[in-house]
From TrEMBL, chains A, B:
Reported function: Formation of pseudouridine at positions 38, 39 and 40 in the anticodon stem and loop of transfer RNAs.
Annotated Gene3D superfamilies: Pseudouridine synthase I, catalytic domain, C-terminal subdomain (3.30.70.660), Pseudouridine synthase I, catalytic domain, N-terminal subdomain (3.30.70.580)
Protein name, UniProt field: tRNA pseudouridine synthase A
MF (Gene Ontology): RNA binding; tRNA pseudouridine(38-40) synthase activity
Location of the active site: 54
Pfam families per record: PseudoU_synth_1 (PF01416)
Family: Belongs to the tRNA pseudouridine synthase TruA family.
Domain Pseudouridine synthase I TruA alpha/beta positions: 9-106, 145-247
Gene Ontology biological process terms from the UniProt entry: tRNA pseudouridine synthesis
């Protein structure tokens, strides 16, 4: 009998061409599916995630689901997957769920963190894990600007022009700022995020921090519904899919 | 006219076969010398360090020196080297020193950190930067054991059997323990450390932490002067050359 499993996984995105399977590329999904196929004697097992992550983007709490007929306990699944997966993917938990559960369609919200290292010196230990930013930032202005994004808006200006979804209305619940030594973390919580949305929001907030844009301009940028009026896309290595919320 | 420069550098050791030049291997020294040769139109410039680090071992404050006839300011040296070096090596400072200065022979002491991640779950972000240790450790016993190493001792039991230096007497000033969340850091300060000494001290202290050895046995192990009686060598990825002290 088939059983559906929900699993929380973490990965260092620096060695992957993103989450989703692509021909001849090392991706998180292809590593997961290769391990599951091996456990099922070559039978392909499809893995569904809460959403994709781009090349270089990390996950602290990505959620996936898959179906299996193997009579294995939740604990044994966790041990088996971790022993077979490469060291840059870790399975944090595996639980049995109803076959109606879907990692993507049931997700009610997501939390992303974007980490900047505010330092003039290159830090070789952080090159894959934070965006090193050597110029000073006006955090007060960035926080003021971020308040314009809270609530329900059409985020067309803040998603990649390649975005195919029609409905670009999303609700952002909170954008918090944490400063710890050199590290500035922007924490985004919302009901969903469009393609590149957190990175474009971050890139635009950085431009507010440098004084290139004013906080109140965020209203106009939202209103324009045009990717070209927002700021640059912040680089992938600072982004972490932190948590996915379900009912 | 030749000028001697002292430079403090940091590197992520995970991509190097150690500090020292080896044929057909990527090493920190060979990267540094390749960049200096490029800056000197192919003329080889020898780089001397405070000491070697093994494959996988990191440096937060390795010290090197080199000589150059180029009329470049200290700040410009730092900028030039950082722009030419690979991203896993960072130059933190460059200063002019007297031609009698020697990074190795003038070093009066060193500080090493050994980082353990006390966690049952694999952390893909720490696999190169800490030794993940899933079993519980008696820190009180480890601290008690560490006190036997303070002072001047013959550390033959705590260096690789391959060590070629005759004089294995070293002075350890402090061994401090820091617990921060999952991370246990052992901080070693002393006048010098033999080959693999910090890793063997750490491996032996871990065996005290698990109850395999008693704190007072450290006295006997020192007395035996035999590598085989000490504990295992802790893995390289947890070790950081933190600082080198000069007069």
């Amino acid at each position: 009998m088939m059983q559906r499993y929900k699993s929380i996984i973490s990965y260092d995105g620096s060695g992957f061409s993103g989450y989703q399977v692509q021909p001849n590329k090392r991706t998180v999904q292809s590593e997961l599916e290769a391990v599951l196929a091996k456990m099922h004697k070559g039978k392909p097992i499809k893995v569904s995630a809460s959403g994709r992550t781009d090349a270089g983007v990390h996950a602290k709490g990505q959620v996936i689901h898959f179906d299996s007929p193997l009579p294995i306990s939740e604990e044994k699944w966790e041990i088996a997957l971790n022993s077979l997966l490469p060291v840059d993917i870790s399975v944090l938990s595996v639980i049995k769920v109803d076959s109606s559960f879907h990692a993507r369609f049931d997700a009610r919200g997501k939390e992303y963190h974007y980490v900047l290292q505010l330092s003039k010196k290159r830090d070789p230990f952080q090159r894959h894990f934070a965006y090193q930013y050597p110029y000073s930032l006006n955090l007060e202005a960035m926080m003021q600007a971020s308040r314009h994004f809270i609530g329900t808006h059409d985020f067309t200006s803040f998603c990649s022009a390649k975005t195919e979804v029609e409905d670009r209305i999303r609700t952002i619940e909170t954008i918090d700022f944490f400063l710890d030594g050199d590290f500035l973390t922007l924490r985004f919580v919302g009901n969903g995020f469009l393609y590149n949305m957190v990175r474009i929001l971050t890139g635009t907030l950085i431009e507010v921090g440098t004084g290139k844009r004013k906080p109140e301009q965020m209203v106009d940028i939202l209103g324009e519904k045009d990717r070209r009026v927002a700021g640059k896309t912040a680089p992938s290595q600072g982004l972490y899919l932190w948590k996915v919320f379900y009912d």
